[in-house]
Amino acid sequence: MFSKMKNIDTAFRHVRSFTMLVIAGSAVITCYALYKSFSSVTSMQDKVYILANGKVLEAYSSDRKDNVPVEARDHVRTFHQYFFSLDPDDKVIKANVTKALYLADNSVKRIYDDLKENGYYSGIISGNISQTVFIDSVTIDINEYPYRFKCFARQNIIRTTSIMNRNLITQGTLRNVSRSDNNPHGFLIERFNTLENKDLGASNRKP
């Protein structure tokens, strides 16, 4: 009788130990599954899918501070492309300058007004002149806010019979503003001025 009770007690202990082991294992598996699910959701939230030219591209989001130099350089490049690339068409000039003015403050608006008052844009139209800009480099100092920048570029002024090459060095500061369709990088150029803009030489166009 005592032997049977002892066997029952031993069996009960084994069952209890096995049950505890199963519960502990289930808890570990549940915690691991929750962790992996949370990690997967977080990872998916950091992904952005972009449709470009009929293709789906995968991109990853990151904090703005990680991309400030890249976005700031592209903002400066975009502004220069709009403001200094001109064709002998009043609508094209107005469209490009309008886009550029969304990216900068009144320091650029004053330059535009002075050029317009002095007949610069009407001269481009009447002379059938095209002006293109090529950005060589843009330096950004992010150690101090607002961020200082300096842009080194070249201009080609294409006339009927010749092409004038001109260097262009500008500088200014960048202030953070809200992003929008007209200003996707969320920067505003301030204190813009031209440090150097001189002719490098001209070449004749082939007839």
Provide tags for this entry:
single chain, 207 residues, alpha+beta, Nuclear Transport Factor 2, Chain: A, five-stranded antiparallel sheet, two-stranded antiparallel ribbon, 5 helices, 7 strands, rod-shaped, Conjugative transposon protein TraK, Conjug_transposon_TraK
Could you explain the architecture of this structure?
With 207 residues, this protein is an alpha+beta fold. It has 2 domains: 2-48; 63-204, VirB8 protein (Nuclear Transport Factor 2, Chain: A, Roll). It has helices spanning 2-45, 64-84, 90-101, 106-117, 120-126, and strands spanning 47-52, 55-60, 130-141, 147-158, 162-176, 187-196, 199-204. Strand 4 and strand 5 (162-176) form a beta hairpin. Helix 2 (64-84) runs antiparallel to helix 3. It is rod-shaped, with a radius of gyration of 32 Å. The protein starts with a helix and ends with a strand. The mean pLDDT is 84. InterPro entries: Conjug_transposon_TraK.
